[in-house]
């Protein structure tokens, strides 16, 4: 089954990309709107045109039916007035001299002629000619009127075909294989056992072709116009959305705490206003981050110095109980300063982004854990991400430390590396500990969040490990998901965009 399923994956991804482009992107929606609008306009124009052509062809058909019926009636009268012995001589003379537009035969029975299939206008012509002839022929005269193709058209009950007749009898162009003109065949029983066979083309032999709606000659210019409109729309929309693409990329870089250069102001008035507002916002964020760094640097300097000075002075106290109270308060104050500084330090690591073989990082971490006496099982494949190496190592290290401390037992911690359905790099860390209460899953990853069993096992913790992981992963455009594994234990899934 795998050889059949694997080739379908690229096709599915291509369909997803095409669907995303057409329905989610601004360019695709513009193209669909332009294509749909032009298609509706062309359809309406074609329908109006077809209605007018149909009315004109209908009038021409009525006139042609009257003209052919009048000519056929004159031929019928002339032949019926001649004695039967003279009729073949007159027919032969007409064929030789070309004195009539009809091809005339006398047969001893009706010839079976197949009508043109699926032609409502042809049926209207047959009914019109039949009606006019019945009005002038003796009542009850058997009459058959059929518009048929000249290819394979029989002219006698014996099977003789129109194409078998001499060229002097029939104009060759009327039965050309590449474009045969239809023949109107009129058969009337003049005397018992004698059928008069008249066949002729109409004054406009190709009147039915005017009703062919979908022809390449008519559709090609319209398709070319649609293609040109789509191409021009893509060019225009791309020029409009190019500044927006630069704006979104710059916003993504700001979200990853990268300080991009101010964007060049270009595009339409609305886009220029958005870029100018973004540049102003980016400058304010840059100043805010700089102020925050200076603030925490000053806090570190200003608070640690008096804390150290107070600790030294407390050593001079004679009362041990009072000295212990001072030390307890100073330790709490020192812990608060360390906590605040650690949050800033661990979630705002200033380093350049570079390609990182995440599988090699995991292998080194597993070796270090094994040297420390921990059991860790690793399942990985060679994968690369683009990000801050030190920050990613710290995030994965926090997950591995938590799994080894809170969940390691008789079974080893399981670490796996692969890809998810969207192609992103997926790092999964699972322990075999007691897990987490379902009600507490939503609070995981928030600063200072500590569960009861974790606080009981490690009193010196701050509850910042998972929040640091979440901040670092979000800085790289990824996601972190927590869950209790169905087979027991706790599992963290860390998803990062592939390089």
TrEMBL record:
Which of UniProt's keywords are assigned here?
Answer: ATP-binding, Cell inner membrane, Cell membrane, Kinase, Membrane, Nucleotide-binding, Phosphoprotein, Transferase, Transmembrane, Transmembrane helix, Two-component regulatory system
Record domain Histidine kinase: where: 298-499
Q: What is the lineage of its organism?
A: Bacteria, Pseudomonadati, Pseudomonadota, Betaproteobacteria, Burkholderiales
CDD domains given in the database record = HAMP, HATPase, HisKA
Determine the domain of life of the protein's source.
Answer: Bacteria
What PROSITE patterns does this protein map onto? HAMP, HIS_KIN
Q: Name one GO molecular function term.
A: ATP binding
Q: Does the keyword Electron transport apply?
A: no
Q: Which reaction does it catalyse?
A: ATP + protein L-histidine = ADP + protein N-phospho-L-histidine
Q: What is its main location?
A: membrane
| Cross-referenced Pfam families | HAMP, HATPase_c, HisKA
> What does the record give as EC number?
2.7.13.3
Membrane topology is:
Multi-pass membrane protein
Protein known as = histidine kinase
Q: Where is the HAMP domain?
A: 238-290
- From the Swiss-Prot or TrEMBL record, state where the protein is found: Cell inner membrane
Has UniProt tagged this entry with the keyword Metal-binding? no
Annotated transmembrane regions: 30-50, 223-241
Q: Which InterPro entries match?
A: 2C_sensor_his_kinase, HAMP_dom, HATPase_C_sf, HATPase_dom, His_kinase_dom, HisK_dim/P_dom, HisK_dim/P_sf, Sig_transdc_His_kin-like_C
